[in-house]
Amino acid sequence: MPRYLTMIRIDENNLPESGGPSADLEERMGELLQEMTKAGVLLDTAGLAPSAEGARVRWENGRLSVTDGPFTEAKEVVGGYSIVQAKDRAEAVEWTKRFLKVHEEYWTITVEVREISEPEIPGVGAQA
């Protein structure tokens, strides 16, 4: 079955006043993640530290550059991710919709769902 990376995009400058998830949201999220794990769909998931604690490494015109966060030019940043295994993109999107619906309506979140291309390098990745 194909694997999908879901990138959870948020605007760090426009988070709910509480700054993080409510206790109710954490409970609903825990229940959904348990269900996904039992169904064999959820392979990995995590939130990410704020962009202020990150760095961007760029390769351009044969030169490397490193920029420390925060990244003010970015309207949205990746705030978390999951890797899911689903029969097709439609199923991965349905699980993503369920993930979004556990959030209170004052959250603004965009999730990008992308199929993971399996590497063709011997000994590397899922095909090893």
Structural commentary:
The chain is of the alpha+beta class and 128 residues long. It has helices at residues 23-38, 89-101, and strands spanning 3-10, 42-47, 55-60, 63-68, 77-85, 110-115. The strands form two sheets. The chain has a four-stranded antiparallel sheet. The protein is flat. The two termini are 15 Å apart. The mean pLDDT is 90.
Largest sheet: 4 strands, antiparallel
Rg, rounded, reads 17 Å
Content-based structural category: alpha+beta
Name the strands of the widest sheet in spatial order.
2-5-1-6
Sequence of secondary-structure elements? EHEEEEHE
* Oligomeric category: single chain
How many strands?
6
Low-confidence stretches: none
- Overall average pLDDT: 90
What order do the helices and strands come in, and which of them pair?
Elements: E1 3-10, H1 23-38, E2 42-47, E3 55-60, E4 63-68, E5 77-85, H2 89-101, E6 110-115
Antiparallel strand pairs: 1-5, 1-6, 2-5, 3-4
List keywords for this structure.
single chain, 128 residues, alpha+beta, four-stranded antiparallel β-sheet, two-stranded antiparallel ribbon, 2 helices, 6 strands
Could you give a short description of this structure?
The chain is built from two helices and six strands, in the order E-H-E-E-E-E-H-E. It has 128 residues and is α+β, with helices and mostly antiparallel strands. The mean pLDDT is 90.
